[in-house]
Amino acid sequence: MKAVVLTATGSQNVKLVRRPKPRPAAGEVLVRLTAAALNYRDLVVVNGGYGSMQRTSDLVMLSDGAGKVAAIGDGVRRFKRGDRVASTFFDDWVAGEPTQEKLNSALGALVDGVLAEYRVFPERALVATPDNLSDAEAATLPCAALTAWSALITQGGLRPGETVLVLGTGGVSLFALQFAKLAGACVIATSSSDRKLKKVRKLGADHVINYKTTPDWGKQVVAITGGRGVDHVVEVGGAGTLKQSLRAVRAGGRVYLIGVLSGAKHDLMLPFILTRNVRVQGITVGSREQFEAMLRAIAHARLRPVIDRIYPMARFADAFDHLAAGRHFGKVVIAI
Ligand SMILES: NC(=O)c1ccc[n+]([C@@H]2O[C@H](COP(=O)([O-])OP(=O)(O)OC[C@H]3O[C@@H](n4cnc5c(N)ncnc54)[C@H](OP(=O)(O)O)[C@@H]3O)[C@@H](O)[C@H]2O)c1
Questions:
Q1: Ligand 1 midpoint to CA 318 (Å)
Q2: pLDDT tens digit string along 132-159?
Q3: How far is Cα 91 from Cα 160, in angstroms, rounded to an integer?
Q4: In this structure, what CATH number is given to the domain that contains residue 238?
C-alpha cells in the first residue's frame, strides 16, 4: 500500500513510500482510508517541533482520517466490514480526564498517522461517520473540530447570547465559529485578509476585524461589546495575540489556550488575568466520548465543515505548502 512517511526532519524528507498492507489482530479494525486532513500541527511535526513528543523518522503523517472498514479482527463488536468511520486523535483517550499516557497516543506524532491507504486501529479509537458527511468532511473533524468543541462546549459551557472571539480563519477557528453560532452566540472574527473576512461573514460572523490593519484589535473587540469584553476567546495565536486576547476578554471571561501560530513564549500579563478573574484554560483536543457528543450535534444540525481544497495523495507536498502559506480558509484535505 501507499503511505506518506516522515523519514527524517524537514519537508524534503516527507516521502510517498510503499509499505506492507497491515492486518487486524484481535480487537483491531483495518480501515481503507479515503481522506485525510491537514492541521497546522503537521507542519510542526515535519520540523521536529514536538521534541520528545514525536518521532522524526519512519512516521506515517497526519492525525485525521476517514474511510471504510475493510476487515475486523476477532472480538470486534463496535464495527463491521463496510462501516464508514473516522479516526480519533488519540488512540487511547476514550473518556475521562487526560493523562500523560493517553496524550502520548496522538496519531501522526509518536504513533503512525493516517496518510496511508490502510491503517489498523484499536476498535476503541474509531467513531462512526454521520450519514450527512462525506469522508473528506469527516476527515476534518478529529483534531480541529474537536478542539473547538472541547473549548467552547465541554470546558466553556457556551450559552445563547454569549460572545465568542475567534482568531484567523484556519481550521480550529472556523469550527469554533460554527459551533458558537449553533449555540446561539454572537461571534467576532479576525483575519489578515479582507477577502477572508467577507467569507467569514457569510459563515455567520456577526462582527469582523482585520488584525493586520487594526493591530490594537483587543480594544475594538471591547468597543463592539459595548465596553464589556467577550465571554470566550478561542486563542490560537499564542505569543503574538495573547496580550490582545486578554484585553478583549471580559472580567470573569475565559481564554482557551490552543495554539501558538505566532510564537510559543510570552511575558504573561499576570495582572490582566488575576485582577479581572479571567480563567485561562489549556486545551488538548479531546476524548472519543467528546468526539461522539460533537458528532451528534453535527448530524442533528446538519453542519458542514468548511473545506478549502482537496488534493490527490500524489500532490501531498502541494497540500502542505498551501497550508504553510496560510492561503487556506478552513480545512485542507488529501484524497487517498
Ligand atoms: N491544543 C490543541 O489541542 C490544538 C488543536 C488544534 C490546533 N492547535 C493549534 O492551534 C493553532 C491553529 O491550528 P489550525 O490547524 O486551525 O491552523 P490553520 O488551519 O493552519 O490556521 C492558520 C490561520 O490562522 C490565522 N493566523 C495565523 N497567524 C495569526 C495571528 N498572528 N493572529 C491571528 N490569526 C492568525 C491565519 O488566518 P487568516 O489567514 O485569516 O489571517 C491562518 O490562515 C495552531 O497553533 C495549532 O498547532 C492546537
A1: 19
A2: 999 999 999 999 999 999 999 999 999 9
A3: 33
A4: 3.40.50.720
- Which of 245, 261, 290 for a ligand 1 pocket mutation test, highest count of atoms within 8 Å of Cβ? 261
Q: What is the pLDDT of residues 16-28, one digit of tens each?
A: 999 999 999 999 9
Backbone phi, psi, residue 224, to 5°: -60, -35
Q: How far apart are CA 168 and CA 197, in angstroms?
A: 9
Query: Per residue in 95-134, pLDDT tens?
Result: 999 999 999 999 999 999 999 999 999 999 999 999 999 9
pLDDT score at 268: 84
CA distance 325 to 20: 34
**Residue 290 falls within a domain, yes or no?**
no
Residue 57 has pLDDT above 90, yes or no: yes
Residue 278 and residue 182 share a domain: yes
Q: Are residues 151 and 108 in the same domain?
A: no
Choice from 172, 220, 308 to test ligand 1 binding pocket (greatest atom count within 8 A of CB) = 172
Nearest partner of 170 among 195, 144, 146, 188, judged by Cα: 144
Q: Give the predicted TM-score (pTM) of the model.
A: 0.98
User: If we measure between CA atoms, which residue out of 19, 22, 14 comes closest to residue 47?
Assistant: 14
Structural domain of 22 = 2-140+305-335
